[in-house]
Amino acid sequence: MAAIHATNSVVRPKGVSDESKLLFAKEVAKYPSDQKQSAVMACLAIVQDELGYVSVESEREVADYLGMAPIAVHEVTTFYNMYNQHPCGQYKLNVCTNLPCQLRDGGKALKHLESKLGITMGETTADGLFTLQQSECLGACADSPVMLVNDRSMCSFMTNDKLDRLIDGLRSTASNESTKEQL
Q1: pLDDT per position as a tens digit, 24-50
Q2: How far apart are CA 28 and CA 65, in angstroms?
Q3: What DSSP element (H or E) covers 64?
Q4: DSSP-based three-state secondary structure for 100
């Protein structure tokens, strides 16, 4: 299994910093001056890296910067799973809920995760470690049920046993990181 990196679970103030706006400028410079709106996805990724999620307020700042209607930025934010619209846990688990995964025990995998974590889809565990989300097709139907961890690591053929090992391993990793920080 590929290494799974923790998300930035620290929630910072809602405003976009001047440093991030400098990064916006670098992204905008990649496009012709009349097409700066093409940098919207990169700008949203910068916001998420800085704030931990993309708030409605930060969508407005991106829209103002790029000369776009706020609803156009919001449409991008809500279309893609990679943008968090609220603070998430350290580990974001996107479970594919599309039909092929459902036909191959995706529903069972989701129910198992809900039971193991004590949350339902869209919620975050009380300890802030896990956020469980649904995802549309992840493009690995032949490997279903599948899930994506922190928008980077694809997990395939997710049996209950594999799900248990994944969750236990992530908990252990988080615990070890916490112990190192305390030292």
Answers
A1: 999 999 999 999 999 999 999 999 999
A2: 10
A3: helix 56-66
A4: helix
pLDDT tens profile 141-158: 999 999 999 988 999 999
Identify which of 106, 145, 133 has the alpha carbon closest to the alpha carbon of residue 7: 133
Task: Give which of 61, 94, 84, 93 is closest to 8, Cα–Cα.
Answer: 84
Phi, psi values for residue 8, rounded to 5°: -80, 95
- In this prediction, residue 82 carries a pLDDT of 85
What does the DSSP 8-state code read for residue 36? G
pTM score = 0.74
Q: Are 114 and 132 in contact (CB under 8 A)?
A: yes
Cβ–Cβ < 8 Å for 129, 171: yes
Cβ atoms 16, 50 nearer than 8 A: yes
